[in-house]
From TrEMBL:
It holds the Pfam family Methyltransf_2. This is O-methyltransferase. It comes from Collybia nuda. One of its GO terms (biological process) is methylation. InterPro entries: COMT-like, COMT_C, COMT_dimerisation, SAM-dependent_MTases_sf, WH-like_DNA-bd_sf, WH_DNA-bd_sf. Residues 236-383 form the O-methyltransferase C-terminal domain. GO terms for molecular function: O-methyltransferase activity; protein dimerization activity. It comes from the Eukaryota. Residues 77-152 form the O-methyltransferase dimerisation domain. Keywords: Methyltransferase, S-adenosyl-L-methionine, Transferase. Gene3D superfamilies: Vaccinia Virus protein VP39 (3.40.50.150), Winged helix-like DNA-binding domain superfamily/Winged helix DNA-binding domain (1.10.10.10).
Length: 470
């Protein structure tokens, strides 16, 4: 029974051990806090180690589905939201920061004295999480951080957070913000998924004013606007920090890999559509200063970008005109005609098919025959073999990929859960969608574009999809 998975696990463990031995290092310990600058963390992210660790996670997931009592597997899955709720509560109670300076652990009473939560409830929360390898219960009712819990450290002191709670996540690495955001408004929205899907209007409207999160919080407008409501000051700041945190799923210069920005002629115009404050444009601009850039976003975001980002970090780019910040609604006619590149990074996934088509058609109407469209989004793999993409020359260049060994799922199962979770974040929050290559191909075709190549960026959950006018 399960010999194949067993073999994959042990062969992959041996390969990881050998890779670490080569560097005279050991795999980072789960029992110790996460140290982003440790050489062992860098080795753990090297392509060969990531390939082996993905096989281990996929095979362990497959093996446990095989051997666990079916009722236990299903009930543990159904009750998974309790783990999310516990994680949200632990983070909102600043538990990671409270435990940071206590490597030997703190009792639930000492933690409770700092965050005001009932110690018994706190113990139950942390025990559920420790059972999922987040925190460690070292002796009864005494907990400490481990590699997973400490990844969510804001790096602020408890005093700093408590004296300015609204800004808890501002200026932090963002992982804590991303997880709190997921365990708060996204989880609350997800609990109304069925009501949303079975609603005769909302279920198939594709409109951004309809979303499971809107059902949960009783609003009928795009979630972007809801975030700006009075009372949502903490959530909106956390959401912005979470967006920054989500960049951790990409290597720092991912946007400079893949598409060859150097192939553009000098002074070529790059329009970063829905570019946020302009973080991505700044990276490209620093590497390719002879190109021209326009960052477009909603007025409030553009204003924040001007005052809080560019003026502090790269004011010369605004003053010499290399970068222009422009308030623009991408659901309306595109103002800039014949740009060399329209960049849409993490934009289309916020929208369902009908609205994504509107955005793409506006870009198509403004494009020339030479305009390139570069979409940066996750491509959700099918959970089965996609034979149309398997061999070079048959599918879209860049989409062919090696198949994992049998009997693992073609998408690597649990090792590759993030694209599916991201897809549901989009559905719940924005009535949006992370797409399969089949859906991208159809959507682009229906909007007058044709995919010419896909770039895979090592270590990134996002792909770059390059399209031209069809
Ligand atoms: C997920 S963020 C991506 C930001 C940026 N492209 C990046 O990769 O970091 C989506 C962005 O789309 C912007 N946005 C949403 N609706 C918009 C609209 N109708 N017109 C222009 N920008 C919009 C949001 O303000 C936000 O900055």
């Amino acid at each position: 029974m399960a010999q194949a998975q067993n073999y994959i696990i042990s062969a992959s463990v041996d390969q990881i051990d050998a890779a670490f031995e080569n560097f005279g290092q050991q795999y980072p310990s789960l029992d110790k806090p996460f140290n982003p600058t440790a050489p062992s963390e860098a080795i753990s992210l090297s392509p060969e180690v990531v390939r082996c660790s993905s096989l281990i996670v996929a095979a362990c997931g497959h093996l446990s589905a095989n051997v666990n009592v079916p009722a236990m597997s299903i009930y543990a899955t159904a009750g998974g939201f309790h783990v999310s709720a516990a994680l949200g509560a632990a983070l909102e109670g600043n538990t990671v920061e409270i435990l940071r300076d206590h490597p030997s652990g703190l009792s639930i009473y000492d933690i409770s004295a700092q965050n005001g939560m009932d110690p018994i409830h706190l113990g139950r929360i942390l025990r559920l999480l420790a059972t999922h390898h987040i925190f460690i219960e070292i002796t009864p009712n005494v907990f400490k951080n481990n590699r997973l819990s400490s990844m969510m450290d804001t790096l602020k002191t408890v005093n700093e957070i408590q004296s300015d709670p609204e800004n808890k996540h501002v200026g932090t690495p963002g992982m804590s913000a991303l997880i709190e955001h997921t365990c708060d408004e996204i989880m609350k929205g997800a609990s109304f998924l069925t009501e949303f899907l079975t609603d005769p209007v909302m279920g198939s409207s594709g409109a951004q004013e309809h979303s499971p999160m809107g059902v949960a919080f009783k609003y009928n407008k795009p979630s972007w606007e809801w975030y700006e409501n009075p009372g949502n000051e903490y959530r909106v700041k956390r959401f912005m920090a979470a967006m920054e945190g989500s960049t951790k799923f990409d290597p720092p210069n991912a946007i400079l890999q893949g598409f060859d920005w150097g192939s553009l002629p000098s002074k070529a115009l790059v329009v970063d559509v829905g570019g946020g404050m302009g973080h991505t444009t700044k990276k490209i601009c620093e590497a390719y200063p002879d190109l021209k850039y326009v960052v477009q976003d909603r007025p409030m975001v553009i204003e924040q970008g001007r005052s809080k980002f560019w003026r502090n970090e790269f004011s010369e780019a605004l003053s010499d005109g290399s970068v222009v910040l422009q308030a623009h609604d991408f659901l309306t006619e595109q103002l800039i005609l014949h740009a060399n590149v329209f960049l849409c990074r993490m934009i289309l996934h916020d929208y369902g098919r009908s609205m994504a088509k509107v955005i793409l058609q506006h870009l198509r109407d403004a494009a020339s025959q030479d305009t390139k469209l570069l979409i940066v989004d996750t491509i959700v793999p099918y959970a089965c073999l996609d034979e149309s993409q398997m061999e070079a020359g048959r599918g879209i260049p860049g989409m062919e990929f090696p198949q994992p060994p049998a009997p693992l799922l073609a998408n690597l199962g649990k090792a590759n859960a993030i694209p599916y979770i991201a897809d549901f974040q989009m559905l719940v929050g924005f009535n949006g969608e992370e797409r399969t290559i089949g859906t991208f191909t159809e959507l682009l075709y229906e909007s007058g574009w044709k995919i010419t190549r896909v770039f895979t960026i090592p270590g990134s959950i996002h792909k770059q999809i390059l399209a031209v006018v069809a």
